[in-house]
């Protein structure tokens, strides 16, 4: 007779790693839409190893799974952090971080362009090649580090994470934001020159609105380019060596 209890126990144990990993990927909070997006992914990734029964030492094995989940979550969140860093730089330079907006889906507050870029990263994750890459990423992780493996190579992955993956998120965030920040600088210069001839024009109060309009139009026009770049980041981050 098929050991259904063993399959249930193995499936429950294999949910530890994807739950911890997906909780670190910032495409949603712990409420509402964030849970709705994470739950099917967690169930899908937990079925990959087809584990039967609990490991010999459940406490030690669960601790190993939590640590592996932390490493995988940090590796997967590089593209999201790059997108958020780009939006945060734009908000800081444009002065939009003062007035944060409330997101009813994720129930948190963030500046306008930071939230917009994270939404673009989420859209890329679920509609582009990001989800396929993450599926292969978890499949490779289960092969390299089987469920409850006693001695996974954590130090090598943590060294790679500290030396390559995390600096990549900051570099890519600055690379995405720099052209838009340069455009904001041109708008500031233009408003300053216009104020010399239009005496009643106050560039300090008008420039923020003009920059927001220009940035919105440019970002809408550059959505395909941004999605392509975020796709490349997802594919680059979802590689285990």
TrEMBL record:
It is found in: Cell membrane. The chain crosses the membrane at residues 6-25, 66-90, 116-138, 176-197, 209-227. Its main location: membrane. Pfam families: Bac_export_1 (PF01311). It is a multi-pass membrane protein. Keywords: Cell membrane, Cell projection, Cilium, Flagellum, Membrane, Transmembrane, Transmembrane helix. Belongs to the FliR/MopE/SpaR family. This is Flagellar biosynthetic protein FliR. It comes from Paraburkholderia phytofirmans. The lineage of its organism: Bacteria, Pseudomonadati, Pseudomonadota, Betaproteobacteria, Burkholderiales.
